[in-house]
Amino acid sequence: MSLTHALKWSFLSELASKAIQPVVFIILARLLTPEDFGVMSAALMVIGFSQIFWEAGMGKALIQRQSDVDDAANAAFWINLGLGFFIAILLFSIADSVAYTFFHDGRVVAVLQIMTLQVFLGALSSVHTALLQKEMGFKKLFWVRFATVSLPGLASIPLALNGMGYWALVAGSIIGQVAQVIMLWRISHWRPKWKFNRLVAKKMGRFGVWVGLSGLLAWFYIWADSFIVGMYLGSHDLGLYRTGNQFALMGFSLLFGPVLPVLYSYLSQMNQDKDRLGRAIEKIVKILAFIAIPLAFFIYSVSDFIGIVFFGEQWEGIGFVIGVMALMHGFSWIVGMNGEVYRAMGKPSYETIVTAITLLVYLVAYLYSVQRGFDVFVWVRFMLALGAMFLHFFVLRKIVPICLFSIVRYIVMVTIVSGLVVTVSHFVASYYMDGSWPVFIMEGLLELLAFCVIGFVVERKGVVRDILGLIKWRAA
C-alpha cells in the first residue's frame, strides 16, 4: 500500500471513530449517572496501566524490526500472552485492595475483575495489529476500528435502557474487545508458531524497555489528574471530571487529530532548512490559535446549556467542567503539534523531556489543589495547561528559529478578541431572547458571524491565506 493510500485510510479511521463516539457517548450519558462513568473510569485506569507491562513495547519493536520478522512476531506474541496471563491473574487477585486503597469504592472490585479479560484479549491481538501497521494495512485496520467503536455502543445502549448501570459500559467494552480479536485474526494472514528465538526476543526486549518507559510516562500524563480526582474525591466527581473532559476534547480532536500525521509529513520535508521550518511553524501556531481559541471560548460560553440539554439534571456540575476543560484544550492544542516538530527534526527526546518536566509540576499541583475542592482542581488544571504552552514555546525556540514575541502577541490578541466576542454575544442574546434554545442559537450565530467578519477583515492576507495554502498542499 502506498503512503498516500495508507494516510487516507488512517485519516478515515480517525474520523470514523471520532464521529461515532460522540453520539454513543451522549446517549449513554443521558441514561447513566456520573457514578457509573466514574466506576468504569477507575477500572479503565488500572487496565491501561497494566498494558504498559504486558505489552512491554513489543508492538513498536516489531514494527521497527526489518529482519527475522517472523521470529520477532512469534517472540512478541508469546511474551505478550505470557505477561498478559500473569498480569490478568494478578489484577484479579488484588482487585479488592486496589479498589479500596485507591478509589474507596467497593463497586470497582467486580468491575476490575471482569475487565481483566481485556488484558488477555489484548495480548491475543496486539501482534496482529502491529503487523498490519508494519505492512501499511490501514484499510483493514479501518474496518476493525469502525466495528470496535460501533459495537460497544450498540451493546451498551440497550443494557443501559434496562437499568444495568455501569455494567452496560463494562459489557460494551468487553464485546468490543472480543470483536477486535475475532476480526484481526480473520483478516491477518499471520499465525503464531510453537517456536521462540531467544536472541531475537532479547534484542526486542531492549527496544521495548524504552518504549515501555515512554508508555509509563504517557499513562501518568493522560490519567494522573483523573486518578487523583478518583482517589481523593470519589467516583461521582471522577465521573463528572472524566466525562466533561472527554466531551470538551471531542470537538478539538475531530478538527485537529487527523491533521497531525499530515503536519509530520509536511514539516519533515523542510527539516534541513531551519529558517523555512521556523516560518512554517509560526504559521501553523497562528492557524491553530485562530481556530482553537475562539472554539474554546464558544464552548465555555454555552457550557451550562450543553450540560442541561445533553446530560440532564443528574449531571449537575458537568457544564462547569466542560467549559473550563474546553479552555484548557483550546490553549493546549496550540502546541499540540510540537511533538511532530521534534520528530520531524529527528529529536523525539525533546518531547519526552518536556513531558517529564511538566508532569512533575502537574503532580505537585494536582495533589495541592485537589485538597481545596473540585472546582479549584479544575481551574488549576487549566492554569497548568497555560504554563505548559509557554514551556513548549521556550523549548521549541531552542531548536528552531521562531519569533516568540510575534507568536505570544498573536495568541493574546486572539484571546482578547474571542473573550469580547462571546461576552457581547452572550449579553445581546440573553437581553433580546427568552429561553435556552433561542439564546443558544442566537448566541452561536452572532459569535460565528463576528469571528468570520473579524477573520476576513484582519486575517484575509495572513492566517486565512495560510489555511488555504495548507489545504491546497494537502490536496496536492
Helices and strands in order, then pairings?
Elements: H1 3-31, H2 34-55, H3 58-64, H4 69-103, H5 107-134, H6 138-161, H7 166-187, H8 198-233, H9 235-256, H10 259-268, H11 274-301, H12 303-311, H13 318-332, H14 338-344, H15 349-370, H16 374-399, H17 404-432, H18 436-459, H19 463-475
How would you summarize what this structure contains?
This protein is mainly alpha-helical. The protein contains 19 helices and no strands. Helix 1 runs antiparallel to helix 9.
Largest sheet: none
SS element count, helices: 19
Q: Regions with pLDDT < 50 over 5+ consecutive residues?
A: 1-7, 470-476
Q: Approximately how much helix is present in the residues? A: over 70%
Instruction: Estimate the global geometry from the Cα principal axes.
Output: globular
Radius of gyration equals: 23 Å
User: Strand portion, in percent?
Assistant: under 5%
Mean pLDDT: 77
Question: Would you tell me the structural class of the helices and strands?
Answer: mainly alpha
List SSEs in N-to-C order.
HHHHHHHHHHHHHHHHHHH
Kindly report how far apart the N and C termini lie. 19 Å
How many DSSP-defined strands? 0
